[in-house]
Each structure stands twice: as C-alpha cells, then as structure tokens.
Amino acid sequence: MNRFKIVLTALISFAVMASSQVFAGDLVIKGSTTILPIAQKTAEAYMAEHPDVKISLSGGGSGNGIKAIVDGTADIGNASRFIKPKEVDLAHSKGVYPVPFRVALDAIVPVVNKNNKITDLSMSQLKNIYLGKIKNWKEVGGTEGKIVVISRDSSSGTFGVWKELVMKKARVTPRALTVPSNGGIVQAVTTTPGAIGYVGLGYLNQEIKTVNVDGVKGNEENTLNGSFPISRGLFMFTKGWPKGDTMAFLSFILSKKGQQLVKEAGSIPLF
Questions:
Q1: Alpha-carbon dihedral of residues 213, 63, 220, 37, nearest 10 degrees?
Q2: pLDDT digits over 185-219, tens only?
Q3: What is the pTM of this model?
Q4: What CATH architecture is 107-224?
C-alpha cells in the first residue's frame, strides 16, 4: 500500500507540473457516473479556454471506463474505485498499461425517501438491510413499512466500494432493484416511499434524505478526517502515460482551478 501511495503521488505531482501545451484534437472520456459531474464541469471550463479541443463524455460505470481504455475506445476511463487485479491482467495481456490519476475524494452516502423518519443507521444495519435480513423499517426504529432495497449494477465502482466496505464482500439480496447510475438511484428513492439507496456526494439533493452512518454524517469534513466509514478516491485512468490533450486536461483537473471545479461539482478536492 505504501508503495502504491508513493507511485500515485509521483504520478499526480508530475501531472500538475506537466507542460500546459495543448495540441488540437478530441478527447473521449467514458466510465463512472460518480465522476461524470466532475468531468462535465472541468470539460466545459477546459473547452472554454481551448476552443480547438472537443471533449465527449459518457457514463456506463467504472468497469466500462477501464474497459474503454484497454480497448482503445476512450482517452480517459473514469473509475470511482481502483483498478482490479483481473483488469490489470487483461490490460497487460493486450499490451496496455493503465495509469491512474486520483482526481478527487468522495463519500458514499445512504439515502432514503425524504418522508422517511430514519436519520441514522449502523454499518451492521446497512449490511443486514442489503442482505435482505432486515425487511421492515420498524426493525431499525422507523415507521411500519417494507424496505425497498436499491443497488447499483456490478460494473459500478460505487457498488464495488459498497460491497467491500459495507457488505464485506457478501452478496446483496437478489430482491434488490438494480439501477445503472447514481441518477437512477436518486430517481428511484425519490419516487419510492420505502426505498433505500446509496450515492456519491455529487448527487445529493433536496429530493432525497441522507442517512448518517454510526452517528457520522457523510460530508467533506468527515471524509477528510476519516470518521465517515464509507469513503473512497475517484480516479481517471489512461492507456499508458498520457500525452498531448489528454495530459493537458488531466493537468488542468489537478491544478488549483481544476480542484475548485471538483468542489463545485460536489466532490472533495485533493487540496
């Protein structure tokens, strides 16, 4: 782990110091919907400064973002988790060497319908809800009513972190409603009184209600001080060491201005 941190720090430092020279062209960015707000905001600002560069964005999940750089269908693959060993092996088998750039920090926050009276759940309660062992809100101090479990699909980096930190790798109940994006979670929870889901900080809004975990609120302060238990880094991966527009765009995100845009997008800046 220490070796990984040293290498990643070196990569980020190099990106920040890299030349700002831009070569006219197009950038294709695919992957995590968690990172999509960051990518949208920074891409708009970057294209405003560099009108000769066009950036196209699409979601699809972290797994698809990493797959896209391995297949060569994207310049940048967004992932709200770190690359998996089997993905590294697949990339290497195709002669591809993915390079990670951590661009932000994030918390994964449990959310419920705004009419739900629940304000706090323990990690154990969250796990048992998603295992399907706790099926009614009255079992966790709420009002009588069936719990509707909403989760992300397996290609989602958010799901991967939730499965590791909350589920401890146990399988989510097959009765869970699976949706393909953070936005899908928000919509489902908004329209379903008994629903529970989980989203990144950038997707929180007034239409859903956040739930504290073990008495700790999911926000920037508690993520940075380590007290919120469901947090992670957000990454952009490239196919080998980036050059040209790809390098310049990553350098922009990792600049002071870029990190301010990360914050405006609802995620947590690195500095």
A1: -130
A2: 999 999 999 999 999 999 999 999 999 999 999 99
A3: 0.86
A4: 3-Layer(aba) Sandwich (3.40)
